[in-house]
Amino acid sequence: MISDIGKRSVFAFAFGIVFALAALWALASPIFSVPDESAHATKAIAQVRGQVIGHEVPGIKHLVVDLPEEYRYSPQIVCFAFHPETPANCGVELGDPSGTTWFNTWVGAYNPLYYYAVGWPSLLLDGSAGIYGMRIASALIGSMFIAFAFQIAVAGRRSRWMPLGVAFAAMPMCVYLFGSVNPNGIEVASAVALWVALPRLLESLDDRGPTFSPTPPPWYLWFVVTLASVALTTARALGPLWLVVVVLLCFVVSGWRPVSVLFTRAKSYWWLSVIAAASLFSIFWTLGGGSLSSQAEKSDAPMVGATFIQGFTYVVRATPDFLQQALGIFGWADSPLPSWTYWSAVAASAILLMLAFTAVRRRGVVSLTVVVAASLLIPALVQGYSVSQTGIIWQGRYGLFLYLGVTIVASWLLSRAEAAGIAHMSVRVTWVVASLVGTFGILAFVFVMQRYVIGNTVPVSAMWKNPAWQPPLGWPTLVCLYVLATVAFVAVVGLMAMRTARADHPVVRESPTVPPSPRA
What we know:
By secondary structure, the protein is mostly helical. 60% of the residues lie in helices and 2% in strands. It has helices at residues 7-28, 37-47, 113-119, 127-153, 162-167, 172-178, 183-205, 218-235, 239-254, 256-262, 268-289, 308-317, 319-328, 342-359, 362-390, 400-415, 426-453, 462-465, 475-503; strands spanning 63-66, 102-105, 329-330, 335-336. A two-stranded antiparallel sheet has the order 1-2. A two-stranded antiparallel sheet has the order 3-4.
């Protein structure tokens, strides 16, 4: 049944499964255990009640937002943060009378669009239930973008490797962020949709060689490109820069000809004007709010006042640490996984990249090299530029939108005719790699559950014998549901690969029939 799914069903299946994974992370994570979630959630709570920008209070460094009584905040809520041996039962509930009706949030002047999109459940629910509601709203948005990515990825004939590339968007750190109140999740999800939809749009504009059908209509591709671009450029302060980076890298991969066609068609400018307006709004809001201009103190971050070279060198040397963070260091960077669990994720990535670098032609290798280099060097360049003012504030999760671009571009290049020599391997490799990704996700979910249920210094058996903390529905139920959702995800990705492999043959344009010339 699923092997014959159409384009709409691909969207529905992908949306449902990714949403299930993200929602389970939303329930499994204690309130404000996600990095910076307390700052983002309190801003959203205040903003949907009319306080778009926080106000200054003498003696308090950050902008202050006002909270209703049911959302009183106490630092004791996050008593477990930075203490991985401490389970999540040590704190108080959001709304506890010991808390305050204000919060000094460091995101008080951030772009308001994301906070309207996820803050509205706090008007319907109180306390912790409101935070869970906002997480679910965020999971819905993130899952929508990943569903768009899967739908467009398999819509063309040259698609046999594409389900594999997009499957990395279900890595545990990704769905963990989707199910949190943090714009980083929407940033990652919208970037994935853009990485897939923009090359497909450019491909549809390239009139050389054979045609590949069925392809989504141009208006639909433009719709997804525009929606993803608006979300990416407004999600965080550096959104406009990230949009430019992703677009330019997609141009490099697609080549100049379709790019030139895009800019010579009048219809393109209707969509481009919407993207430009959103980008300008984001830039002016950020500059006006001063969220990029404040000078950090030396106690806020390491290397405040350092030079560009010092910041750049630091980030380059720390790249392996950032990659590990992106794979799975959860909580407030206080919940790493056992080292052996990362090998399944590393193996999945290595298989895809090894095939791409060895099977595609020279131009494809150059394009993929450019994308890989950009994913590693752009964080160092950006952090080097700002280190004097901000110190080292980069975290591995900030680079997820670039790392996922590498997997998508690799699968895109493998799907092209130039890699036809290994086309017969696509289905088997997809099943293997999707299973590795799913295995890593299950392991991450279980070990993060252990960290919050009993602490990471207590044997796992204590989770059954003497759990100190329980999430909604209980940890055994959440783990079982996560395993089932992961199995479903692997199955759907594998069946997508089988479907695209069967459909992967070009429909060559027929030339007019020329009658044979009479014999002399």
